Predict the 3D structure of the following.
Amino acid sequence: ERSRGLGDVYKRQVDTEGPLVELVQPEDEGYISCDSTEVIFRFYDISGTDFVGTIVQFGEESFAYPDGMESFGDTLLIFPLTSSFSDGDSVYISVSGFSDIAGNPGASRGWWLRFDLSPPEITSLIPAPGSVSSRTYQPIGVVATDSLSGIDVDSVLFVVDGDEFTGCFVIGDTLYFYPDSFGVAFHDGDTVSVCVSVPDRGRICPPNVADTCWSFLVNQEGPSVELITPPDHSIISCQNIPVELLITDENGVIPESIVVVFNEDTFCFPSPELSFSDTVLTVDYPEDFSDTNRLFVVSAYDSIGNPLGDIIRFEFCLLYTSPSPRDLSTSRMPS
């Protein structure tokens, strides 16, 4: 009996503190992705929690246990949210008035509940829909923002030509899929279809998700070149005529990328010897033509970065002599 009495004294001495409470759902300071859910509190106490007298303050309203609440044992207390909320709402919730079985009161606590009911906003697509790329490993991306819960970058889903890839590389507000990191390559003539799903970090209910799809083209063929005048391998009889070449590409040609070598001289923009109008390059060679003239197109790029394949070579000859009087006389037919 003496020992039992001492034990009772010992129990009363160690159990002098009230219960502790924490917020289980939603996560502390996290965002809720739906406007109808439950708040779950967990209580800790060696003697167990007595919920009688518990008050839940939700915004401007007070609720006394068990008003609309549900308890599980002496540990969990569930408080349903029955109000309607709007995107971006914040409501303060607190719990107080609880004690343990021994009558020790617990300290009240409060938390902010924040609501994110809208998906992230996608403002830009990379590459642009319907655009043309020359790159075998064209990066694909979206510019996406979410000012409330933020974006769950680990759950971003890219679907490229029907294959799914989870996760992304983040640079600022841009979420990138780098195809070479996943063994994906694009080829000339491909039409690449892309879908992207961007979830936010809202919890309890499924996250809010922004979805978008688009496609782009792959063209890896560079400009083509044709000598207009004088024709290739032709023989001309006059000096200093303009040399004209046709340089075409369905994506357009960048004039500043054109480099030509005429005989021993190299010309590039903005050289006065070169002019480019629409698709015609004119070379106004400042020197007299040689007997044999060689023209090389060394460089030309289209507007999406495709280069000229091989160096293009043209050649023409100059025959700049007049028949002598003797030649004319000997060529006359006898009368």
Notes: The first strand starts at residue 20 and ends at 25. The chain has a mean pLDDT of 89. The radius of gyration is 40 Å.
